[in-house]
Amino acid sequence: MNYVLFILFFILPFQTLFALDKVTLHLKWFHQFQFAGYYAAYEKGFYKDVGLEVELLESTVGIRGIHEKVVQTTGQYGVGSNELLLHRHMGKPVVVLGVIFQHSPSVLFFKKSSNVQSIHDLVGKRVMLTPWMEEIVAYLKKEGINPSDLQLLEHRFNPRDLIEGRVDAYSGYATTQAFDFKKAGFQVIAYSPRLAGIDFYGDNFFTSEEEVKKFPNRVKAFREATLRGWQYAMSHQEEIAELIYNKYSKKNPKERLLFEAQQMTPLIQPVLVEMGYMNPGRWKHINDIYNELGMLPRNISLKGFLYDPNPPTNYDWLYYTFFVVLVGVGVIWLIQWRRLNKQYSENLKNQVKQRTEELRQSNESLQKLNQSLVNTLKELTEAQDRLLASEKLAVLGQLAAGMAHELNTPLGAIVSSNLSLYDFLKNKLQTVISTIINFNEDDTKRYQIVLTESLENQAYLEGKSERSLRKELHSKFSHLEKMELYGDHMQLVIETGLFRKLDQIEDILESERSLDILRSVASINSAYRCNQIISVASEKATHVIRALKNYLVSEKETASNESVIDLDSEIETILSLYHYNLSKITVVKSYGSEVKCKGNRDKLNQVWINLVNNALHAMSFNGTLEIKINSDQNWIKVSIIDSGVGVPENIKDKIFDPFFTTKPNGEGMGLGLDICKKMIIQMGGKIELEPSKNGACFSVWLPKVNP
């Protein structure tokens, strides 16, 4: 009996003390290397190290139903993707704890040797699209292709559908399906939405708001152990692949698991990017894409959606303590004064002595309090400097999606054109040369005529224009058997631009080798066009990089408030950075002959960024932006005018106050204009809101540089 009581009162409480918290992690697909970090965290004891017992549940139906399970009760976690933003807007209180894939592995596969050689060839073709792959739909729309233009088939997740020709295009993951095609010896072309500037995140892990609120320590521990597991998995790929195959699933061979791991490395970027890192600017970019698809409103709030493992320090307690101390000192002084006044007539000498001692103590307290206020002021000054730096980083975050689009588009064109050139030089050049050498004299003259016309006047006909031209040519040359409406001769006459030489078409087609002549010219014309595309795309990418370098890299002499600033050049750099955001904006520029002033280049660029950004938000990125630079006696005046909603009369006196903002919660702290005003005053200038018929007009006066 005594032994039983000993167990009940001593051993059982200790067992409860050291018990592990039980939580559940819902995977979004079958066991594979895609979830390697969670297996590593479980098998290596990282979860147990932080007091967690984790149950890993495999899904056989994808992400369907996972979000409801996670938000129903606490202790539930899940693996999701960008669709979490949609579920959050639909009212499901999900919270993203960390992003694993910095770039989505979603791609669109085509057979390399099929008649689908570019994204635009998909119109009217059979396509399988995976549910919740909205970045693929957005990519197609960016290229001018609506889902209604396609023959959409239900996705069966079987690569044989593409290999055996039952479908023309097949959406999937570059990390997994690419292995199936490679193993089958089936050559494919993979198109990523990143070619059109659509850069979505891939896998992430999430939980519910209730879990974060009730069990903050458990959430933080789960996140840290999970990221530790991912770091281990990506550093020990062969070991984890062996573990998955032996313990979790033999559905995929180890060779496929290792291939998946290798493909995941550049998408996760474990060396370059901190594991789990997510940028609010990238989520805003995803929101913008969903808005373009009509699935979300613009600029939804991300507050509470993105988990912050290290929230900023709250200084409210400091102000509250100061207030309590101040009130306490006042109350004590009042009590002492009343007591002294009451006893004054009875014991004046003792009261004077006591009062003197109290004043001495009070003086010491005030000196300490004064020193505390000095230290607080110093901390606030340092915080302002950090805010200036964070403003610049915030701007880069806002512009990240646009800069990615401005670079990815020309780089994608260069890569695509380079592949075409490589194919021409490797597979077609020798054939073209052999064909030309065997031409007789008449065919050589015909070849020269077609080649000259093709290279001098590039043909870029497609869609409705091409169909109309095809019908017109068929009507005019209906007596020629070779000019069938959809025949090879008709197609090559259009591609080479020979249709502009109507009087010579019959002569060309009379040759027995007319098809060889047209095919040779079409191959050379395609290589020439690729060369032109590479030239134009390279120039565009160089322009974007030059603008970003000018904004980020400042020389030593520009750090002074007395530096000579070329306003024309600096403002043009800012507009170049915002080029992607100005697609629906009409920019009107009026620069005077004298556009140089005194100031600090970095600080002035921050001012222009703030004013231009405020103007774009006021116009909802659609309207007219006017920039004027003119000379006003000893000043250079810069005016930035927008066609937005303007500034109401009742708040005009408050817009330069710190922490005053009209933007929704989470989209601005109200420090932009206050910081701009302080920087302009430091440079000896001034900034004002001037009257304007439409929108708002902010004018900045800066000291002029005398010739």
Write a compact overview of the structure shown:
By secondary structure, the chain is of the alpha/beta class. The chain contains 23 helices and 17 strands.
Relevant terms:
5-stranded mixed beta sheet; kinase; 707 residues; alpha/beta; D-Maltodextrin-Binding Protein, domain 2; single chain; Sig_transdc_His_kin-like_C; 4 domains
Provide a descriptive summary of the structure in words:
This protein has 707 residues and is of the alpha/beta class. The chain has 4 domains: 21-104 and 199-293, Periplasmic binding protein-like II (D-Maltodextrin-Binding Protein, domain 2, 3-Layer(aba) Sandwich), CATH 3.40.190.10; 106-196, D-Maltodextrin-Binding Protein, domain 2 (3-Layer(aba) Sandwich), CATH 3.40.190.10; 317-553, no CATH class; 563-703, Histidine kinase-like ATPase, C-terminal domain (Heat Shock Protein 90, 2-Layer Sandwich). Helix content is 52%, strand content 13%. The chain is built from 23 helices and 17 strands. It has helices at residues 2-17, 36-43, 46-49, 66-72, 84-89, 134-142, 160-163, 177-183, 209-214, 216-235, 237-248, 254-268, 280-292, 316-343, 348-437, 441-456, 464-476, 488-496, 502-510, 514-552, 567-577, 601-618, 672-682; strands spanning 21-26, 52-57, 76-80, 94-99, 106-111, 126-128, 151-153, 169-173, 188-191, 204-208, 563-566, 585-591, 596-599, 623-632, 635-642, 686-690, 697-703. Strands 2-1-3-10-4 form a 5-stranded mixed sheet, sandwiched between helices. A 5-stranded mixed sheet has the order 7-6-8-5-9. A 5-stranded mixed sheet has the order 12-14-15-17-16, covered by helices on one side. β16 and β17 (697-703) form a beta hairpin. α16 runs parallel beside α20 (514-552), α18 crosses α20 and α20 crosses α21 (567-577). The longest helix has 90 residues, at 348-437. It starts with a helix and ends with a strand. 31% of the residues are buried. Residues 3-17 have low confidence and may be disordered. One of its GO terms (biological process) is thiamine biosynthetic process. It holds the Pfam family NMT1.
